[in-house]
Amino acid sequence: MGDLIQGKVILISGVAGFIGANLSIELLRSNSPVQIIGIDNMNDYYDVSIKEYRLEKIKSMSESRPDSTWTFIKGSIADRELVNEIFQKYEPSIVVNLAAQAGVRYSITNPDAYIESNLIGFYNILEACRHSYDNGLPGVQHLVYASSSSVYGSNIKVPYSTDDKVDNPVSLYAATKKSNELMAHAYSKLYNIPSTGLRFFTVYGPAGRPDMAYFGFTNKLREGKTIEIFNFGNCKRDFTYVDDIVEGVRRVMEKPPKKETGEDGLPIPPYAVYNIGNSHPENLLEFVDILQQELIRANVLSEEYNFEAHKKLVPMQPGDVPVTYADTSALERDFDFKPSTSLRDGLRQFAEWYHDFYMDQE
């Protein structure tokens, strides 16, 4: 383990979220001693009991690591005073900003939430990072933040590379994530803040987000409802298992972009952006086929379940893209890491968790 994490104060926003919680658990497990400060507004965009379940998992991991500390703060990063208070009180060395209003389709019906969390909230984090160096303090050594594969919009060229031009977002969500990268670049240049943006590709796994397809499909199938498969099944997604995402984030945290001076005597922005994906896009119909097999195996659904009667192929939705496909060669080169969990293994873990979480309580 690298020295940058061990013994340090790490601030994780969106800590009750899918990636935030799993990252916290892994850092406590593998990097003790460590001091994790987590903030989350616990909004009800999806079932809050899943967020509470995740927080409970972090708490129990922290209790098994007596030399580490875990502090949870309920609040929003859009609350500037609160963000400043947290930075002044805890003086984090590493900030991992995962707080964001997620989801492409929801950004069409509820745009305000995206502006507040993804733009104003991120701005507050950047400002707090900037002022963390005031009065000669060492300040934030690395800001790692979530971007999204949605920034690629309807780019035709695949796989998606971080060298591609991404100026044509097809949803407000994507536009806010591209804005985060631009804002971080400006702050890296102006204030020499080492920052790394991570474009996540369709993250899935146990205790994930219920608004994601695999989770929503499972709920509907259990209720005997019909699942809709978009673009008549001709969608491909680069599904990335949550443990792979967490390992990628952990490695990135360890290695901030170097601070260097350019020929003009000014800082070269210590700024980087990487894709984290599986580099293996799966057809949605095949994905659903594996999901149904694993749901039967985990006794979430009966072996006699008639899938054909509950499946409907429908056209593309506004804001969606037909394919996501990550070029992860830069991540591999710089961090010696490539996500590798197979879809079947990942969906098996999800199906078993789903059975335990929902059906053992019935």
Task: Tell me what you see in this structure.
The protein has 362 residues and is an alpha/beta fold. It has a domain at 9-201 and 242-279 and 325-340: Rossmann fold. 40% of the residues lie in helices and 16% in strands. It has eleven helices and 15 strands. The protein has helices at residues 18-30, 48-63, 80-90, 106-109, 111-131, 172-191, 213-222, 242-254, 284-297, 329-335, 343-359, and strands at residues 9-13, 35-40, 69-74, 94-97, 142-148, 195-200, 203-204, 227-229, 236-237, 240-241, 260-261, 267-268, 271-276, 282-283, 311-313. The strands form five sheets. A seven-stranded parallel sheet has the order 3-2-1-4-5-6-13, with helices on both faces. Helix 6 (172-191) links the parallel strand 5 and strand 6. Helix 9 (284-297) crosses helix 11. It is globular. The termini are far apart.
**How does the overall form come out from the CA principal axes?**
globular
Q: How many H/I helices?
A: 11
Order of helices and strands: EHEHEHEHHEHEEHEEEHEEEEHEHH
Mean pLDDT: 91
Major sheet characteristics: 7 strands, parallel
Structural class call reads: alpha/beta
CATH superfamily of the domain at 9-201 and 242-279 and 325-340: NAD(P)-binding Rossmann-like Domain
Strand order of the largest sheet: 3-2-1-4-5-6-13
Low-confidence stretches: none
Q: Indicate the radius of gyration in whole angstroms.
A: 20 Å
Percent helix: 40-55%
